[in-house]
Structures are given as C-alpha cells and as structure tokens.
Amino acid sequence: MKLQDYFPFDLTIVGLNGIYHDTEDGYFLNSSCVLSEFQIIKPNQIFILQSFEEGSNNDISIVQLLDVFYHEGFANLYIKDMVSQDTKIIRHCISKGYESHDWKLIEINFFMDLLKNGYEFTI
Fold first, then answer.
1. Strand locations in the chain, DSSP E?
2. What one-character DSSP code corresponds to residue 59?
3. C-beta separation of 70 from 54 below 8 A
C-alpha cells in the first residue's frame, strides 16, 4: 500500500495541471528541485540530496526514495539517508509558479549520464 492511499486528492485539480501525478511505477513531479529522467521519480531509486540552509553550507547526502504522497498543496517525499539510515519527509509546494525550495533531488543514474555527456554542476 502506498502512502498516497491514506491521503486521497482530486486528480483533476492537481494532476491535470502538469505538476504532480502518479505514474505506472512512480510519480511525475514537474519541478526544478527534481532532476531525473522525464521528471519521473520511483520508490527505491537512489538520489543525491543537496540541502540548502540559510546561513550554512550545502549538505550533500545519498538517499533512497521510499514513497511520495500529495497532501494539502505539498508533494511529500519520504526518504532514507543511506549512511545514517534515518528517514524523513522533505516537502515541495505544488502551487503553480512557486519555485522556492531548500533542497534539490538528483537521481543518481541521471546525474552520472549528465556527467558522461559533459554537463558541469556547480555546488
């Protein structure tokens, strides 16, 4: 059972605006804070999580996506840190035009493909 089953929402309001919806085996999250192939994220995928906190350095960690659910205007990503094994939820506001966030999630294979093709990242 997915966490989303506990938080039902109206797909015609949220999904059809091209920002968030379930896919066959994952979730489509159209946001600049998510870098993955076709903006699809799937449970059990491994990601680089870059956290930006005001007044501190960027934190980089390797995380596994456990699940995703939409609730009250936010996409909630349930993740597990691969080193500490701690779990937490990171949230992203789904409001159209809202692009302020304090993290970036980069799917590891997508990241490696970008590097192989000469893309340069600034951290």
1. 20-22, 27-29, 34-35, 40-41, 46-51, 59-71, 74-81, 87-93, 103-107
2. E
3. no
